[in-house]
Design brief:
By secondary structure, the chain is an alpha+beta fold. It contains three helices and eight strands; from the N terminus they run H-E-E-E-E-H-E-E-E-E-H.
Length: 152
């Protein structure tokens, strides 16, 4: 068990915790954009050519870029079969509670999709169809929407 620092928590400690929480809960990438090597290292997949146009709005086509938390994925790691699949990280669609993400096609460019977090207002991810262009950014106030489960 960790002890509280003698001089208390600083604003830097709080900010570090908030940033870590946002990255752990929000950082999502398209399936196949990262791969796991035979040494167990996670790295960018140079062969990734992007999601198909029909798969852009399907949240099942996105995964969390974080250490694995979902039980099904942990079982794959234990059997060492996670190296042979392109969706070895946690599935974003299995987030609890359901509907914690909104997915929208861009009105101007239908080849582009924007994904927003309802828990962390200000987090946006994007992906372009048939392209290796994807990413995410957080532009918020660092306050988690704890009322989100009651809003659904």
């Amino acid at each position: 068990m960790k002890k509280m620092p003698e001089n208390g928590l600083t604003e830097l400690d709080r900010l570090s915790y908030v940033i870590h929480s946002i990255e752990r809960q929000c950082q999502i990438v398209p399936i196949g954009s990262y791969k796991k090597t035979t040494l167990g290292e996670v790295c960018v997949n140079d062969a990734f050519k992007g999601l198909k146009f029909d798969d852009l709005t399907d949240l099942n086509q996105y995964m969390h870029l974080r250490p694995i938390e979902q039980q099904l994925k942990r079982e794959l790691v234990e059997r060492e079969q996670d190296r042979f699949t392109h969706d070895f990280l946690d599935n974003a669609a299995l987030e609890t509670p359901a509907c914690s993400w909104t997915v929208q096609k861009d009105a101007v460019n239908p080849q582009l999709v924007t994904i927003r977090s309802r828990f962390w207002p200000g987090y946006y991810a994007y992906a372009r169809a048939n392209s290796s262009i994807f990413g995410g950014i957080y532009m918020g106030d660092g306050i988690k929407n704890l009322d989100m489960p009651f809003m659904i």
